[in-house]
């Protein structure tokens, strides 16, 4: 997507939609910011009675949910309609208990976009691996999520 104004409108709309998305409301997840160029998203999840586990810390499923869709959504917008982008696999490493609000910063840079375009130029699939850390308010690592995405040019774009 090349028009920065369109991208900024999509970024604002994405933030608004995700903040009223019922699973996010139910888990206490809030999208704090989406950069106008859709390359950085900041997410917060507070610790509430409805997302607390048996031992009183952040529920692991909610920790994963707070970062789940973002890399796919960001890449779909940044690469454009000629690409298929899907989540393929994920894993989460729980490092320390989340005893309060937690935050995640998801970023995509030019190097990743160039890498994806290079690997998919011939029509082959590419499986980039991305990582995001979930940290508490003091900056301590709570969990690390590894995501593998599936990216490929759509058939119409492969023949162009």
TrEMBL record:
The keyword Hydrolase does not apply. It comes from the Bacteria. Coiled coil: none annotated. The keyword Transmembrane applies. Keywords: Membrane, Transmembrane, Transmembrane helix. The chain crosses the membrane at residues 54-74. InterPro entries: DUF4442, HotDog_dom_sf. Pfam families: DUF4442. This is Tetrameric acyl-CoA thioesterase. It comes from Pseudomonas wadenswilerensis. The lineage of its organism: Bacteria, Pseudomonadati, Pseudomonadota, Gammaproteobacteria, Pseudomonadales.
């Amino acid at each position: 997507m090349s028009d920065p104004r369109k991208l900024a409108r999509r970024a604002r709309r994405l933030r608004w939609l995700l903040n009223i998305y019922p699973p996010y409301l139910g888990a206490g997840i809030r999208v704090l910011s989406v950069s106008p160029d859709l390359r950085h998203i900041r997410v917060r999840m507070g610790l509430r009675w409805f997302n607390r586990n048996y031992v009183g810390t952040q529920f692991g499923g909610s920790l994963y949910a707070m970062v789940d869709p973002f890399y796919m959504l960001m890449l779909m917008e940044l690469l454009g309609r000629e690409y298929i982008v899907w989540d393929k696999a994920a894993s989460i490493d729980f490092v320390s208990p989340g005893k309060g609000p937690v935050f995640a910063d998801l970023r995509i840079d030019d190097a990743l976009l160039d890498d994806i375009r290079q690997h998919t130029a011939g029509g082959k699939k590419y499986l980039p691996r991305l990582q995001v850390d979930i940290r508490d308010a003091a900056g301590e690592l709570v969990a690390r999520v590894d995501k593998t995405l599936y990216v490929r040019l759509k058939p119409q774009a492969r023949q162009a």
